[in-house]
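lol ok so funny story. i was supposed to be doing the assay writeup but got distracted and ended up predicting the structure for this chain instead. priorities right. anyway since i did it might as well share w the group, maybe its usefull for someone
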Amino acid sequence: MTDVPLLSVEGLTMRYGTRTGCADVSFDLHDGEVLAVVGESGSGKTTLLRLLAQELAPDAGRVRYRMRDGGVRDLATLDEAAQRLLARTEWGYIRQDATDGLRMSVSAGGNAGERLMAIGMRHYGQIRGAASDWLRRVEIDPARIDETPQSFSGGMRQRLQIARNLITEPRLVLMDEPTSGLDVSVQARLLDLVRGLVTELGLAIVIVTHDLAVARLLSHRMMVMRRGCVIETGLTDRVLDDPEAPYTQLLVSSVLAA
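and the output, tada:
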């Protein structure tokens, strides 16, 4: 264990013309910690996630990451090949729509094993064995390894996305509304799965959600955003049980009223 954050975000800012996507967002994330980013639609949550993933370039600020050798690197200084390698090994990204995070015409085993091939694994039996093991771990019958995600339900597709991302043992996972659009019972199973994997693997997670119940169940800390700005941050239970900012109070009371 180390006191140096795994991820350090400083002053991250991005604008879309006259509209603010993110404004001076800063936070640290340590190994094994789950941070929930909550807020209404248009608050900047997904923009922040895409900035962290280096899919968007910020107008200001920086994102630093502690590499496995202990060195801390500014991600903007990495070349394209180094960023791709980081995304395939150290990081995972669970998309809101699983069809954006999977190759729908490729088998479940191919989806899970593709990241292993991207980091140099070439032994077919080992790749297939690892894919089968991860399908089992995310509660997909390994007998369906040769089926494509097109034949899977929404919940199964999300679980396959998780297997695809975790097969290379990343240390950081970004999640964008992973339970959105799923039935309540399917959501519950998926959240139980994620919570178990966080404990088992010591994952650090940034999860974007509009669902405060998801945030309470999964996260240690919470960051509330509105119009691109951080309105409030703190331990999840404290923010939900004793919100300080009027906007956070409105969010919490609206959920309770519903």
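The longest strand covers residues 19-29. The first helix runs from residue 45 to 52.
back to the writeup now i swear
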